[in-house]
Automatic annotation (TrEMBL):
Keywords: ATP-binding, Carbohydrate metabolism, Cytoplasm, Kinase, Magnesium, Metal-binding, Nucleotide-binding, Potassium, Transferase. InterPro entries: PfkB_dom, Ribo/fructo_kinase, Ribokinase, Ribokinase-like. ATP binds at N180, T206, L207, G208, S209, K210, G211, G237, D238. Homodimer. It is an enzyme of class 2 (transferase). It comes from Shimia aestuarii. Pathway: Carbohydrate metabolism; D-ribose degradation; D-ribose 5-phosphate from beta-D-ribopyranose: step 2/2. This is Ribokinase. It catalyses: D-ribose + ATP = D-ribose 5-phosphate + ADP + H(+). Transmembrane segments: none annotated. The gene is rbsK. It comes from the Bacteria. It is found in: Cytoplasm. Its cofactor is Mg(2+).
Length: 293
């Protein structure tokens, strides 16, 4: 089994700030780092670190060879990451405050120029029962779900950054939908339907410090968050998604997959960074969390 992830690849530029800047405000950053990021790359790394076979489908510019190589180091199959000669690699400017909250500005770059031939070549290797995962930081979503449906793949979608038109276009194809609480509210407002009525077999709504809610065939079950002290929430949702789908791909029941994903996300928020600090499976399974207050 394998996960084919049509996903973004970014250079993440982190700036530690005393608080998130307001309109017109200039702040002096107290620290700066560069790392591998993008929702797609984060999910690929998380799934690979959770012991799944992951094939990443994407693109970088001439300035992004290091990012492709970094994905390879994490165990991701990078044969279907195109290198575009005239398009910059996507990047994100991430402000993180002293409470672990963040504000992010994205340049899509090569993520919006993935050749359709790259997508087709990757999915030509897939087998029925494999997973297609995708988000909203690339193009080709509609083409991908049509190919995946014809191939008998399990289709999973993280509806972020939220775009109602993009989400409504792919909803009829989905087996698994994951969104955060704000995105779920936005989708309900736009469609007039709550998550249980969307027609997707498995819907997961992440609730931040309150945990996550799994809606299966219209029935909801809550998974409480584990008690930790967060220092950086960047990438926690991507880690959750990658771990959940990796566990499912490896044959875990969804309840166990989401429990493992909750543990991985809890560890992730105690670290500063994105793909480079996603915990591996050994760390996640051996982690000890304090008892809830």
């Amino acid at each position: 089994m394998a996960i084919y992830n049509l996903g973004s690849i970014n250079a993440d530029y982190f700036y530690r700030v005393p608080h998130l800047p307001g309109p017109g405000e200039t702040l002096a950053a107290t620290d700066f780092t560069r790392g591998l990021g993008g929702k797609g790359a984060n999910m690929s790394v998380a799934a690979a670190r959770a012991a799944a076979r992951v094939v990443h489908i994407g693109a970088v510019g001439p300035d992004g060879v290091w990012a492709r190589d970094r994905l390879t180091e994490f165990g991701v199959d990078t044969r279907h990451i195109a290198q575009l000669p005239d398009t910059p690699t996507g990047h994100a400017i991430i402000n993180v405050d002293d409470h672990g909250e963040n504000a992010i500005v994205l340049l899509p770059g090569a993520n919006h120029a993935i050749p359709e031939t790259t997508l087709a070549a990757a999915l030509s290797e897939a087998s029925p029962g494999d997973t297609l995962l995708f988000q909203n930081e690339t193009t080709l979503q509609r083409q991908a779900v049509e190919m995946a449906r014809n191939l008998g793949l399990y289709i999973a979608y993280a509806a972020a950054p939220f775009d109602v038109a993009a989400t409504e276009e792919v909803l009829p194809y989905l087996d698994f939908l994951i969104l955060n609480e704000v995105e779920a509210s936005q989708l309900s407002e736009e469609t007039g339907k709550d998550p249980a009525a969307l027609g997707v077999k498995d819907v997961v709504v992440t609730l931040g410090s309150k945990g996550a809610r799994w809606i299966h065939d219209g029935q909801a079950r809550d998974f409480p968050a584990l008690p930790v002290t967060p220092v950086d929430t960047t990438g926690a949702g991507d880690t959750f998604t990658g771990y959940a789908l990796a566990a499912r791909d490896r044959g875990f029941p969804m309840e166990q997959a989401l429990t493992l994903a909750s543990r991985a996300a809890a560890l992730m928020v105690t670290r500063v960074g994105t793909a480079d600090v996603i915990p591996d499976l050994k760390e996640v399974t051996e982690a000890r969390f304090r008892a809830p207050d």
